[in-house]
Design a protein that fits this description.
Number of domains: 1
Strand order of the largest sheet: 1-2
Number of helices: 8
Order of helices and strands: HEEHHHEHHHHE
Length: about 270
């Protein structure tokens, strides 16, 4: 028996959609961006090199923290928790699991992924190709409900990134210094924190389930602040993707010797 838009009792239009606008442009654009980031990040985490610039203490966020003894000297700010990793195991395995889990379960990315990668549906008034709908109640989609727990992990990694950003104020030969890499790292930090703090889970944690805001003035202030950021969560989500790629690529290029860091101070 036909289901969905072809189910008995539904109007049989015959057309895929009656929309005459370029409805496919938005999901195509977002799909290209998501696809590029997935491919880029996958290649980079398996490279296991060009993630640390010792002269200026630049560490790419894709490899922070680097906690295996396989990491290059100086890049393990928190020490080495593990021994040598086999070459086929990414040094940034923990980082990848937590941050990919946070973005993958994010409400905005779920919408973007459903529309651009799975066409479920691709746009309003455009039938999806799937015959059955189970929502997020079965494996593997039920794992998307772990978003708030990945958010806690993202907060920890956000603090680690701030530490990495402070380390980036390192001059050539020691002392204080600022380079273009420092500026890029801190630009990425700002966008990552805006994305994290504008999260729906963050808004619920700071102010959810409160029956009376007047009895919780501090939480109410945080909730008000997050509520102002929340409408721009999608913008921060996509912008932070580009800043992460920019930061990683710049550090990779300097580390590989493709070009030198532009120094502003020292």
């Amino acid at each position: 028996m036909a289901t969905g838009v072809d189910a008995p009792g539904r109007a049989q239009i015959g057309l895929k959609t009656a929309r005459s606008d370029r409805w496919w442009l938005a999901p195509l654009r977002i799909g290209v961006i998501l696809g590029f980031f997935i491919v880029y990040a996958t290649i980079r985490i398996f490279m296991n090199k060009w993630y640390w610039v010792d002269a200026y203490h630049y560490l790419t966020p894709l490899y922070s923290p680097c906690v295996t003894s396989s990491c290059v000297e100086g890049s393990s700010h928190l020490g080495t928790w593990f021994g040598d990793f086999p070459r086929f195991v990414p040094f940034s395995l923990i980082t990848f699991v937590i941050l990919a889990g946070f973005r993958g379960t994010c409400y905005y990315y779920r919408k973007a992924g459903y529309r651009s990668l799975f066409f479920a549906p691709a746009a309003c008034a455009v039938p999806e190709p799937h015959k059955n709908y189970t929502g997020e109640t079965k494996f593997p989609l039920i794992a998307l409900n772990l978003h708030r727990y990945f958010f806690y992990g993202a907060l920890i990694f956000g603090v680690l990134n701030i530490y990495d950003g402070l380390q980036a104020f390192h001059g050539d030969g020691g002392g204080f210094g600022i380079g273009l890499g420092t500026v890029i790292i801190w630009l990425n930090l700002v966008m990552l924190w805006l994305y994290t703090l504008s999260c729906h889970a963050c808004r619920h944690i700071v102010g959810g389930r409160l029956k009376n805001f007047s009895k919780h003035p501090v939480r109410y202030r945080y909730w008000t602040f997050v509520s102002k950021l929340n409408p721009k969560h999608g913008t921060f989500a996509m912008t932070s993707l580009f800043t992460v790629i920019l930061t990683d690529f710049y550090i990779m290029a300097v580390s590989a010797g493709w070009f030198s860091d532009l120094r502003i101070i020292n």
